[in-house]
Amino acid sequence: MLQRIIGHEGLVESVAWSPDGRWIVSGSDDATVRVWDAASGAERLCLRGTEGPVASVAFTASGLRIVSGADSGTIRVWDAETGAGVLSLRARDGTVEAVACSPDVRRILSGGGLVAQLWDAETGAERHTLRGHRMGVYSVAYSPKGDVVATGGGQTIRVWDAETGAELRCLVGYRTGVWGLAFSPDGWRIASGGDQTVRVWDIESGEERRALHGHEGMIAGVAFLPDGKRVASAAADGTVRVWDVQRRAELACLRGHEGPVACVACSPDGRRLASGGADKTLRVWEVPG
To answer: Is residue 88 part of a domain?
Structure first.
């Protein structure tokens, strides 16, 4: 473990890296969004005004803005340099569990309740409401190609056309909720976390390509590494694990959190992982191998 970052006063629910790898942003049950220096672990910004626990955070592809989603149903866009509020949106179903940003910085994707929504990132206008899940939406992801988005709710993952909002396919494989989603860097695969299994899916066919077993608790977060060959996962068993997707092999089991781990993200250069959990801390790890 490279760093233990302290400052939040509640569960760290979400973590993301800036595109240049200099900053880490985190969202917590303490109703704050915090920005940290990735090299030193020093707190740079503490953003307040989310109206409740922060379930999800993301940097835009430009790195100029931060998007947060709160349990209260509020989506906020912040200036990443100054911390000033830029935009505030209100979700349809009164809660936001996950947010993601388009690679062209023009759209925001949010999920919560039984729906996901696509928003104009500049005006805040709602572009599409994505309906079809019969249980709560707890995870969303935007393809790096910008053509499709994915949402996880209940036992299903649904893939949608990002331009029209049309549902393209429905992936089924979990007994309980889908808590984590991530697209591969080439946009052709999705990694998902739920139950105690990481699954990797083919976007075009909707077929499950890999099932990765080893966690002993619910998987709450997943992230592809930049090489597209490895996936990191965070789980309630208190571990972060790194997997070789092709060989279905566990490469590393990272221990250090004192309780369930809720989120994981990989740095743009693929050399570090950041995770957060119930012990109110962030941990930064060197990617093994």
So the answer is: yes
**Tally of structural domains, the chain:** 1
Specify the DSSP class assigned to residue 147.
Answer: S
* Rounded to 5°, angle at Cα 57 from 55 and 63: 175
Residue 248 lies in a domain: no
Q: Is 122 helix (H, G, I), strand (E, B) or coil?
A: coil
- What tokens does 92 get? 């349809």
> Does 100 have pLDDT greater than 80?
yes
pTM of the model: 0.97
> Do 138 and 180 contact (CB within 8 A), yes or no?
no
Q: Cα dihedral sign for 153, 158, 161, 166?
A: negative
Give every CB contact of residue 177 below 8 A, 6+ residues apart in sequence: 135, 136, 138, 152, 153, 154, 155, 194
E-assigned strands of 71-155? 74-79, 85-90, 98-101, 107-112, 115-120, 126-131, 137-142, 148-153
Contacts (Cβ under 8 Å, ≥6 apart) of 149: 100, 109, 116, 118, 130, 140, 141, 142, 143, 159, 160, 162
Q: Let me know if residue 200 belongs to a domain.
A: yes
- Domain range for 42: 7-226
Handedness of CA 86, 89, 94, 95 (dihedral sign): negative
DSSP output for 26-60: EEETTSEEEEEETTT--EEEEEE--SS-EEEEEE-
Q: Which of 52, 167, 153, 154 is nearest to 111 (CA)?
A: 153
Per-residue pLDDT tens over the stretch 174-216: 888 899 999 999 999 999 999 999 999 999 999 999 999 999 9
Task: Of 146, 149, 188, 195, give the one whose Cα is nearest residue 172.
Answer: 195
Which residue in 162, 85, 171, 159 sits closest to 119, CA to CA?
162
